[in-house]
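Example complex used in Figure S2.
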Amino acid sequence: MKKLFYVTLVTCFLSACAQKTSNYNFESASSVKIDESKVVLTRFPSVLTEIDDSTIAAINSLRKLSIYNIYSGKNIANFTTEKIKFDSLIRETFQKKYEGRRQYIYDEATAGGLSEGNSQVLFFYYSDNTFYIYVNTLAQVNYINDPAELLKYSENEKIKELKKESGDVNLQIMQYLEFVFVVDKNLRLQKILPLYEKTQLKNDKYSPFYQKGFAVSNSKLFVPIQKDDQSFEKITSQLKWESNLNTLAVFDLKNDQKTDYRLGFKDIDFNDFSLHDYFSSAFVFRKNTNGLSFSNGKDICEIESGKKLFSKKQLRTNEWIQSYQMDDNQNLILVTYTLDKNANPTEFEKNYGLDSLSSIQLRTFNTQSMEWGNEKALPTSINLSMLVTHDKLIYFDKDEENYYLKFIPYHEN
Amino acid sequence: MRIKSLTLPFCPLLFFLSCSSSGGSEKHSYLHSLVDSLSLNKSKNIVLYTINPNDCLSCLNGFKIVNNDFSNITNARIYVIAVDREVEKREWLKTIKGVNLENNADKKILWSKNIFQEINRSLHKNLPLSLVCVYNYKLDSVIYSKSIREISDEREFRAVLGKKF
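Predicted assembly (578 residues):
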């Protein structure tokens, strides 16, 4: 009896030892000045993505995809759409696709905004030595023989009101036309994929939200989707949570109309999301040995199996995931931030659902033992576009004169 | 004991002095001082644009439309562009299209993120949004302010612009 008790105790002790906690050492930050000889930064670069141990890619001023060496700050290469003739591209793609129903009119001055430029580069995904770059451009669309689409506009309450006050209204509809530019590792353009409407998605009343992020794996593109037929009183209204809703659509890049769904609302929790939370939270795709995973800013799930890797229950109140990475020992390394609800918000803050940022931290979590490990507080003044890799946190910083690339190395004990 | 008796008449005197000094000087807004620093015609309402060059494409196009539609007005105009670094300013001036950014008697261009933030903050708009505002110097008051993305009808802006007080 005594022996049995002893064996049980030893077993318990051993199994407790096997439950590893994620113990990481965080080093101090290194910093290098950014080379702006080719591209002048006008805002913090976004969509930071690791290319290899020494280089990252990021989007600059919503116009360019730039590659930097993180140790020297050198701007190695840049991709822009400056040489793309969007008028002929639109003629060959959208105009042909909707011939007889819609008329597309492209004007470079409108597409450029205030400065030169013909489009916006808003997101990219890097996988297997290939960049998939999301580009959109503004064009005027005349729904000459597309009454169903035109109805969407003529039924708009503001337009109805304007018609009532001013009589006949000359309606000019500007629309973003979306493309994915497929580019190799040396930033040479391979092909351009026009992102047409998907019949199944339209029938199911969903719209893809490419600007929020996407991933490409095995010729399939995974993109967040929004429900079209939900109406909201204000930006802070709660999402209408239904378990049969889907989070991601999957498009076959070899078959334009083949559409599928992944991650239902029953798999990934949007339960207490407001509309503002949906738009402002970071949607992150990550690829590791187990395949693709996705975070909505609260939960992290494997996309194919729907298995939950991390639950929002582990987060503190008002804490959100900004970026994450899973190591080989099932440790999650996360950058999270917490928001404070303003006690006396102004009307503007209410309308835009603005909260104040109270903390940013680098944290580790072991998905086996379900325990938090080490944590490093980061200054709230730094830009939230951050990248967590297997061995460092990378982010941009600036002072009055220069931009800097900074990184905090870390390693498991 | 001696100190105590001196303190008593001294305290009301300080109180009186502090009251008279605050009542004597008029407190003006940040915008009032800004307009004072520029030699502009203050007799009419002043148009104020705060522009974030990194705002959304539709917002920047909206600004171009508003600016073009109101290019013939005789009101003074201030353009505050949220750019600080000289290198960025040069880059913008190289590529800017559809907007004339040259100073003249009734039009002042200010390149400053600080001023941009101060104005937006004073209007309780704590986001880097491009705004269209109408400021009345006499009243020292912003009588119209809207982020460009919220402007759906120029008639409202035009009506406020012509208002006399």
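The two ends of chain B are 59 Å apart (CA to CA). Residues 1-24 of chain B have pLDDT under 50 and may be disordered.
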